[in-house]
Amino acid sequence: MRLRSLLFVPADSERKFAKADRIGADALILDLEDSVAPGRKDFARGVVKNLLGGGPRNWAFLVRINPFGTGLTLEDLAAIVRPGLDGILIPKVNGIDDVDLVSHYVDALEVAAGVSPGHVKLLVVATETPAAMIGLNGYNRGNKRLVALTWGAEDLGAALGALTNKEPDGAWTFPYQVARAQCLFAAGAAGAAALDTLYADFRDQDGLAESCRIARRDGFVGKIAIHPDQVATINACFTPSDADLAHARRIVATFAATPDVGTVGIDGKMYDIPHLVAARRTLASVGEVV
């Protein structure tokens, strides 16, 4: 599952879905949570069920469910776990135990719906509650369905009573820098993809591109989008350039030609095993197996 760009779409809007279907995102997240009013949850579930029955797609079909504590989680899962669903985004988790519980529910629902066991993957918004921040070390035990972790600042800020989560220059304040970094570490420990949070100003393409550049530099492999106009920029930023790929192939080939050494020289620069790991990851991101 390629996860450079993941575009949110309100689950109760077939019009917005029709537009998003053609936009080029790696995944669409049909949202049953915050973008759907309480009185339209049932309607939104019905829309998702109908859309899941559509034809072949070149993007992953994900659904963000309502979190535990709302009383809506099981209704969401029962409605959406069916052929066509690729993954579930779980918001406001308090830790890996919540992920495991959803995974157990999906085990049973896949069987009931005739879905291949293990097909539905789980993605987690891992930093939206104070308890979640304390429990991030639990992700190192993993979960067979878990493929990605992302982070969010708005719900965490509301839970903490923060007046703002941004500095005057737009940088994250310290608590949210911690949340971002801890998500990155937890994803690494779980063997999952780390996805950067949304960039709120969808008209600011330069700011979005810089945000993506910093995220990719730090180890994130994709980013949440909240508007179709953000998708192309995100895809471009998280796609290795031809020069990046050529350099990665050269590193891999040089190590393969000298399997008994831990360090190689290329064009006057020394490369060691961490560089080899990074090169393989770069090639894997475009489907090259090395």
Automatic annotation (TrEMBL):
Protein's UniProt keywords contain Cell wall biogenesis/degradation: no
Highest taxon listed in the record's lineage: Bacteria
Domain HpcH/HpaI aldolase/citrate lyase: 4-228
InterPro entries, per the entry: Aldolase/citrate-lyase_domain (IPR005000), Citrate_lyase_beta/mcl1/mcl2 (IPR011206), Pyrv/PenolPyrv_kinase-like_dom (IPR015813), Pyrv_kinase-like_dom_sf (IPR040442)
Entry cofactors: Mg(2+)
Recorded family membership: Belongs to the HpcH/HpaI aldolase family.
The protein's name: CoA ester lyase
